[in-house]
Amino acid sequence: MGSGISKIVKAPRERVYLALTDPAALTVWQAPGEMTALVHEFDLRVGGGYRMSLFYPSSEPEGRGKTSGREDRFTARFVELVPPEKVVQAINFDSADPAFAGEMTMTVSLETVRDGTEVTISFDGIPPGIRPEDNDAGTRMSLEKLARYVE
Are 47 and 77 in contact (CB under 8 A)? Predict the structure, then answer.
């Protein structure tokens, strides 16, 4: 398991878990930086999952997207749902580029700490087309947004 990126948020685990499993919340916090998001379908159960698009802002150069010029579309399957402790998802990008092929696992763990909840996000099997430092930066931005959302 890859080492994770953690952040302490000032909110109870139950509230953070809801933000991990609510499609309206996902569109707010899971889009890093200036990106915007759209959930196409959502099925909250193990074996279920969701399809989501992340859109690059018009200020970014065209052509950054994995699916099309400004879009990263992916399918996430819920592998494990343990309220209010853990969400494990298997993620596949919709891309014709083999550099983005393959299944990536994202594990979000929630641990109660004195000031709230420690949220740790770790990844396994990141496709070779995604630079680890870019993935880390995006994860940190998403954690900041998650903190603002639940606090």
Answer: yes
Domain 5-150 classification at class level? alpha beta
Residues contacting 131, CB < 8 A, separation 6+: none
In angstroms, the CA 17 to CA 108 distance is 9
State how far the Cα of 71 lies from the Cα of 5, in Å rounded to an integer. 25
Whole-structure pTM over 0.70, yes or no? yes
> Rounded to whole angstroms, how far apart are CA atoms 33 and 7?
17
Chain-wide mean pLDDT for the chain? 94
Contacts 24+ apart (CB under 8 A), 131-135: none
Instruction: Render pLDDT for 10-67 as a digit per residue (tens, 0 to 9).
Output: 999 999 999 999 999 999 999 988 899 999 999 999 999 999 999 998 888 777 789 8
Within 10 Å of residue 146's Cβ, how many Cβ atoms? 24
Q: CB-based contacts of 98: which residues, under 8 Å, 6+ apart?
A: none
Helix, strand, or coil (residue 35): coil
Q: State residue 4's pLDDT score.
A: 94
DSSP 3-state of 51: strand
